[in-house]
Amino acid sequence: MDKTQQGHVKADIENGIASIEFYHPSHNSLPSNLLNALKESIENHGRNDDVNLIVVKSAGDRTFCAGASFDELVRIENEVDGKRFFMGFASVINAIRKCPKIVIGRVQGKAVGGGVGLSSAFDYCMATKYASVKLSELAVGIGPFVIGPAVERKVGVSAFSQMAINATEWQTAEWAGQRGLFHEVFASTEQLDEYLTHFCEKLNTMNPEALALLKKVFWEGTEHWDSLLEERAEMSGRLVLSKFAKETIGGFLK
Questions:
Q1: Alpha helices, H only, the chain
Q2: How many CA atoms, within 13 angstroms, populate the side-chain half-sphere of residue 150?
Q3: Which stretch of DSSP H or E encloses residue 18?
Q4: At what angle do helices 32-47 and 79-98 cross, to 10 degrees?
């Protein structure tokens, strides 16, 4: 089977809490079809009156999300397709931003590139000590343009610059926690899940109207992100066609 067609996005609702899980066998990387399914699931659950909170997580233990699908990136042959692919990440970030419900992230393992972008977009994000982070885009000839606004909003310009420029180095979960990317960091997945359940059950008893208004307050000043992230997707869509990016991404696949 074509690797870009593998994986899943699935969801369930229990006691007003929607859990959305994504999975791909290549370290939970995200091809276009999964990005679109993730966006639609967030939007649909955001409109569902039976849902008070949304939790986004990935399957497996070692990697939360390895970012963009290299198998799909290497096939991009023109700027239109390039922009279309990167709009997938833009759409997920904007879906979280505009969702009227609080979206909580469960980051059990490493996050790379787009995985850091997702972590940054969550309204509240919990992780394990194994959740190292890296923005590797520059190392493959692109740059963290689409996810940049979300990352910068959470960690600030200095920390975003550090990750974007030092593109081959991992930063620890502790480092990410100190800079506000992660709100809680736990010693194990078991501890993470135990606290996540407790946290969601408690938050589920809060006034939904107050939570919705808080969500609006959190995201004030980002109303222009629809156009901003589209512009950033165009940047990445052009760069992925460069000789440097094509050769580097192809080398990783080999």
A1: 32-47, 70-73, 79-98, 114-121, 148-165, 173-178, 189-203, 208-218, 225-239, 243-253
A2: 28
A3: strand 17-23
A4: 30
**Spacing of C-alpha 46 from chain mean position:** 17
Q: Is 102 exposed, middle or buried (0-12, 13-18, 19+ CB in 10 A)?
A: buried
Helix (H, G, I), strand (E, B) or coil at 151: helix
Q: Which two tokens stand for residue 128?
A: 């394990």
Length of the chain: 254
Q: What number of CA atoms fall less than 13 Å from residue 84's CA on the CB side?
A: 10
Distance between CA atoms of 88 and 162, rounded to whole angstroms?
A: 25
- Tokens coding 134: 């890296």
Rounded Cα distance between 130 and 25, Å, is 19
Q: What is the pLDDT of residues 59-97, one digit of tens each?
A: 998 899 999 999 999 999 999 999 999 999 999 999 999
State both tokens at 20.
């959305």
Q: How far is CA 16 from CA 82, 165, 245, in A?
A: 38, 41, 44
Reference 249, options 28, 67, 13; nearest CA is: 67
CATH dotted code for 3-191+206-253: 3.90.226.10
Mean pLDDT across 156-164:
98
Q: What residue has token string 């969550």?
A: 122
Nearest-angstrom CA–CA distance, 70 and 54: 28
Residue 129: what residue type? Answer: K
Q: What is the pTM of this model?
A: 0.96
Token pair, residue 155, equals 């960690």
- What is the C-alpha to C-alpha distance for residues 88 and 92, in angstroms, rounded to an integer? 6
